[in-house]
Amino acid sequence: MPSHMHPRIGILTGGGDCPGLNAVIRAVTLTARRQYGATVLGIEDGFEGLIEGRGSELTEERVAGILQDGGTILGSSNKGDPWRYPVVGQDGKTDWQDCSGRLLAQVQHWQLDGVVVVGGDGTMQMADRLQRLGVEVVGVPKTIDNDLLATDQTFGFDTATAVVSEALDRLTTTASSHHRVMVLEVMGRTAGWIALMGGVAGGADVILLPEIPFQWQAVFDKVKARAAMGMRYSIICVAEGAQLPTGGEVVQRMDRRRTDPKRLGGIGAVVAEHIEAGTGLEARVTVLGHLQRGGSPTAFDRILATRLGSHAADCICRGESGVLVAYHQMGTCTVPLSATLAGRRNVPADHDLIQAARALGTCFGDEAGSGCA
Description:
CATH topology of the largest domain: Rossmann fold
Number of strands: 15
Shape: elongated
Radius of gyration: 22 Å
Structural class: alpha/beta
Strand content: 15-25%
Number of domains: 2
CATH class of the largest domain: Alpha Beta
């Protein structure tokens, strides 16, 4: 429970940036200040700022006008794991140290009654460990990938889907003009929500997901069938985590500087190369990359982020901790923070949108896909 009538709370944003983060910061700040008379401390660059003591008070003036802004005014970082924190020694070499003690000392120094932690699965793992150390924590789920358990949807996903849909619209016009196969590679890690929703919204002819193993011949047959019917172009939307037919591996590279060293990406170029070799048709690839994470959030994401942020402020100021504020059945609720740690939320192979897309002729690259004929 808060140690005094007017609580002191912190808020940090961890992991990758995401449209809607500023809306959460604004909602937490305004609700906590206006409803509870709280002091709100904005912690810079995620857990890095909490360890290093970088933060400043958030006032109504500071959060004015940020609702529509992308990114986060607090900054973020993927390198701030307090239990494996990079410390550069005098010899210039990086040593990975447990700095959780510094983290606790800073919480006490700032006299915080609790911390609102906004982030994805990696950030929530750290938030759960922080809670177990005795710090009151409320989590707010964030990821464009929409792959967090315990919540029906995460803010940022709707914006990313809209970006993919618009990109496919634009690629369709140039594909039809030049009679090409256009391949669009999108984010999502090992979950295909962005590729599925964005691909269907953008009218993709082929959608390749991590959850549905695909075969090259099925993709070739779809593209050639369209050409035979006089449709001299095809649009393919592929998730970065889709598995290659040979061995089921994903295209990735390693970056040991990151908390998660695996960096997915590059499958779009592989798909384009195989299509040219397997069909004789000209293919081009576009990788949207961080365009999906940037820019102004959609109205849906602004509203969802506002609802979750306000609910989080209520929880932390009332002394409710160890919970995640979630979006469930079109309302907000709380679930145990540990509920996010059991795995990732993937696209079910029998999802109704997949079934609808198949009925319309969309190919998912699997042998059972009726849309690939």
